[in-house]
Input
Amino acid sequence: MNISGKTRICGLIGDPVEHTMSPVMHNAAFAKLGLDYAYLPFRVRPEELPQAVKGLKALNAIGFNVTIPHKVAVIPRLDELDPLAEKIGAVNTVVNDNGALKGYNTDASGFLQALLEREVEPAGKNIVLLGAGGAARAIAYILSEQDVNLTILNRREELDWAEAIAANIRKDLGNVIEVFELLPDYLEKALEHADILANATSVGMSPDSGKSLVPAQLIRPGLVAVDIVYNPVRTKLLQDAAAAGAVIVEGLDMLVWQGALAFEKWTGEKPPFDLMKEVTLRELEKNEK
Ligand code: NAP
Output
């Protein structure tokens, strides 16, 4: 990477940020397109968020990504909000438009794009979503915009949160959404009529890569199994699903799509998706060793 007198910055604010794949993904893409931009990770503690956002604006950054724990807290610090990000209530991408900071949620659109790219059309389908955390909320919203029949399963402690997600979507979009506790019987029942199963919990993530919330015998051929966990790339859920003859969609696809959509917003250029995926996969494999 050549840093010149004209180089503009881009980056990620979060805490922690050490494990992010985004610098590798975006710097490779900037270099490929000959763009004089540099992407850096910035560890920002919650109490320092306002100064960090002001600082990035003052430094004329082209924009930045936002990760845990700032995806909600950053919103009042922005000048404008994309309607989807506003509905979801979380931002992962900010564009600096000549001093006006506009927030987007490309986690949600990245998830949808990952499905569409695999020719999985969610509209009208029965979808079982596991989890009610930040990513699940974004996914539940964008899927509901596609007019799906959604069932959210989450473990007991967070059932209120899952109910809140569902209530918000029902109010905005009028969809029927069911919420159940993540118990074996409910899961089995929900999967009986499911077209798509999406894991949006962190279960199966390294170092607990031997775990899956879904017993292998409940997965049948014809089901589409999506795991948003990308570390490891082939989670236990996806291994079981592939062995059962299900169609699988890896979390790596969502990860690269959320990055590619952010890249497009920052640069106005078509993102070099294959390169971004290749360098991200290489980085993940390096970390797995
Ligand atoms: P989060 O807000 O912390 O939510 C985590 C979710 O997992 C919660 O619903 C949590 O339930 C559930 N969970 C954790 N352990 C569980 C267990 N043993 N049994 C059942 N449920 C369990 O995290 P997030 O930001 O939504 O991220 C979730 C996962 O998605 C992470 O692995 C993250 O790396 C991945 N992710 C991937 C992408 C991508 O682009 N591919 C994007 C965003 C996130 P409780 O609330 O009850 O604890």
Observations:
- The domain at 8-104+253-288 is CATH 3.40.50.10860 (Rossmann fold).
- Residues 68, 107, 110, 131-136, 154-155, 157-158, 182, 201-203, 205, 213, 228-230, 251, 254-255, 258 surround NAP (CB under 6 Å).
